[in-house]
Predict the structure.
Amino acid sequence: MSAVRAFGPGRVNLIGEHTDYNDGLCLPFAIAAGITVEATAGPEGTIEAEALDLGERDGFALDDDDHADGWRAFVRGVVAELRRAGHALQPATLKISGDLPRGSGLSSSAALEVALALALLAHSGVEEPDRRELAKLCSKVENDWVGAQTGLLDQLAALCGQDDHAIRIDFRSLAIEPVALELGDWRLVTLDSGVEHTHAASGYNDRRRECREACERLGVDSLRDADPEAAARLPDPLDRRARHVIEENARVDEAVGALREHDLECLGELLDASHRSLRDLYEVSVPEVEETVERLRDAGAAGARIMGGGFGGAVLALLPPDARPPDGALEVRPGPAARVLA
Ligand code: GLA
């Protein structure tokens, strides 16, 4: 039987950080780099998988519900959740490869989840479900099998991104609106801080808890509904956490406006404002990230900010035409969404 291959892209979040799990707004895009999963027929009743970059292999029964660690958690989780959703999967041998550095803030996890899901479905001859539903399924894998209580940002960006566009996602309605990303001679780059962030072990889950507590005290379902004045009266640090979310949502729409008006200076200022808020109000930065931000500013960035869950990972910067990216910076552009490759 012939092989099928599916690709899951990494993602960059232009702005709108720590808003997805607060029913808020984000402006991510899928990038060209990502993870590819090749599926071929496997031995009866089993899933075999090989992570090519690690030189590791594993195999398990198709109906095995045991949890595992590392990349194996993703494979087992995706197989189990697809089956639970009623998809009849065929035995498969999977080969996983890619060009996204793990833990770098470009969401290699979501890229792997969506590539696994699309490869397994195509290999099994199952019609692709609605992409928002698939994003939720992949997010469940992240929450229940990998142990990170992340939101839906990464999976939706990977599955619903559009070439040449960022997408404005409203996490309350899951409405997605493409926004053309016309940068001319300007460039977006990411630069790794060198600190690997593992969500499960980091303060990410603490921030989610704090947001829930802020909601309970304010008597609202989500911080999307929080009144700024009431939020300012919350005890520290809940007041600052809520203020970040409220203002970050507003910055997403200001960024959409700046892009529509081709005002890239303004976009740069918004990235800086987002960074200050993530550093001082949401407190998800670390010294290595601050040094990385400084390096990008020294290189002439019009704006730079920590991206993703925080506590390490990558910094995103907007560089005007005359700025030279520092060594190690990766230029990022919007690419197409996750897909089965011909
Ligand atoms: C990580 C999570 C996302 C989102 C961001 C913060 O990337 O996976 O769901 O919460 O952090 O914006």
Summary: The pocket of alpha-D-galactopyranose is lined by residues 17-18, 20-21, 107, 150-151, 153-154, 308-309 (CB under 6 Å). The CA atoms of residues 191 and 327 lie 9 Å apart. The first strand starts at residue 4 and ends at 13.
